[in-house]
Amino acid sequence: QVQLVESGGGLVQAGGSLRLSCAASGSIFSIDTMDWYRQAPGKQRELIASITSGGSTNYAESVKGRFTISRDNAKNTIYLQENSLKPEDTAVYYCHADVCAPFTYRCTNYWGQGTQVTVSS
Questions:
Q1: Interatomic CA distance for residues 51 and 29, integer angstroms
Q2: Smallest Cα–Cα separation from 112: which of 32, 28, 11, 35?
C-alpha cells in the first residue's frame, strides 16, 4: 500500500507565500509523474502543476510564473512553492502520483488527503 501525505497549507494574505509538501511512502518501485491539483468550492478539480522523475515541469496558465513545483526523488517528495498568492488560489490542494509497485511493476494512481489553502484579500 502507498500513502501520499500533504502538508504546508494554511491561511495567508494576498501577495503572500506558502510551500506545500507531499511525501509518498509505502511499497514503491518507481514513480514517474507527480502532480498537484486543486479544487475550489463549487468547482471541478484542476491540474495545476506536474513534474516527471527527470525534472520536466508543466504548469496551468493560472499559476505559471507564480508557483514552482520541485521534487526530491530520493525522498519520493514533491513541493509546491506558491508566491504572489491571490484570493482565487483558495482551494484544497491535492497531491497525485502514479506509483509502480515492486515485483509486479503494476502502476496505480494515488491521491493525498488534501491540504487547505486560504488566501484573504
A1: 18
A2: 35
